[in-house]
Amino acid sequence: ALGIQTDKLGRIEVDEHFKTAVPSIYAIGDAIDGPMLAHKAEEEGIAAVETIAGFAGHVNYDAIPGVIYTYPEVASVGKTEEELKEAGIEYSKGTFPFQANSRARANKSAEGFVKILADKKTDKILGCHIIGPNAGEMIAEGVLGIEYGASSEDIARTCHAHPTLSEAFKEACMDTYDQPIHF
């Protein structure tokens, strides 16, 4: 009735600034295309308000994590190996099992691993994937790395407290460009 357009699934169509076909109406989150994630909607809401206020609102969709709250947890951000292969992007892969992480073993929760995907030439992190304890919390380091263009070496050379689960993230980064020290 107002002139707002929807796609075939009933989602509201918006431009890159979340504006609908009606100039004074914006839409975000579950009402528009994309994954139905509360944290994605929050980022879109902030970007929409920034745009309305005259600033440059932006959402980097490559840096929106997905988490499955199971046991073990599963978390992912950025590209998968399949997406990189399909796009013809050469990449390096580093992995590190929680079985080799002292905190995971001490907590009797050592299932799973961390996997890091980085550009073969530049070492820029392209994807991070975690299956294991606290994956939903640990993925934030990967989000930060992707958002700011970090290399796997940048994270590998950053001090991580010991003993922590996040050391597995560091070790996977070490495996991406060189080799881990605890496996």
As residue ranges, the low-confidence spans are none
* Share of helix, binned: 25-40%
- Major β-sheet strand ordering: 1-2-5-4-3
β-strand number: 5
Note the gap between the termini. 62 Å
Mean pLDDT: 96
Spatial extent as radius of gyration: 19 Å
Explain this structure to me?
Strand 1 and strand 2 (73-78) form a beta hairpin. With 183 residues, the chain is an alpha+beta fold. It has six helices and five strands; from the N terminus they run αββαβαββααα.
Would you kindly provide a brief summary of this structure?
This protein has 183 residues and is an alpha+beta fold. It has helices at residues 38-52, 81-86, 102-106, 135-147, 152-156, 167-177; strands spanning 66-68, 73-78, 91-97, 113-119, 125-132. It is 30% helix and 17% strand.
Question: Could you give the topology of this structure?
Answer:
Blueprint: H1 38-52, E1 66-68, E2 73-78, H2 81-86, E3 91-97, H3 102-106, E4 113-119, E5 125-132, H4 135-147, H5 152-156, H6 167-177
Antiparallel strand pairs: 1-2, 2-5, 3-4, 4-5
